[in-house]
């Protein structure tokens, strides 16, 4: 059970309605994802998407990276918050997810800012030879500590790394399963890393914000 499920339905709706409305293309993408794939719950959604947009706009990020595209919802939220010369690289291992994402990128006026890399991120990320102002980690939980180690050197000074599912339904408090242990390991790594500062948000399933000093 995720923290989101523990929340009262009326309150969850109130939170969504108090957040700026998502554009129609993203509403269509969310609907297609929830009806055409068995993994609709993996999509970040309008509240987290808007939070990502705020972070990008406030930090004036121009170069972004996402690990775990799924059907492209967060990627489109990120891309539409970027200036015209902003760029997002997003990584996805499943061809079917990437196919849906690319279809929506092609329909969006912000799609030209997005480069979709298909393949296992543990292999594609080491080949990226550039710095990023903003990194969103939202793929396989078991590799979260690996993604932190691989990507912290590629994060610009003052840049933000955002970790999704950082509370993993509350399991991080007593982590036993491999995924909860991996997420807890990353949370601890960041907390004790003197090169960053971090704050844990209880939004949805937990979001850890990490800023490189
Ligand atoms: C939680 S979903 C991402 C949701 C997306 N960020 C959003 O907000 O809509 C996780 C995605 O990561 C992909 N994934 C899992 N392991 C991966 C890996 N090693 N490399 C690249 N993508 C991976 C999955 O196929 C899935 O589509």
Automatic annotation (TrEMBL):
It comes from the Bacteria. Its EC number is 2.1.1.-. Keywords: Methyltransferase, S-adenosyl-L-methionine, Transferase. GO terms for molecular function: O-methyltransferase activity; S-adenosylmethionine-dependent methyltransferase activity. One of its GO terms (biological process) is methylation. Signal peptide: none annotated. Pfam families: Methyltransf_3. This is Class I SAM-dependent methyltransferase. The lineage of its organism: Bacteria, Pseudomonadati, Pseudomonadota, Gammaproteobacteria, Candidatus Berkiellales.
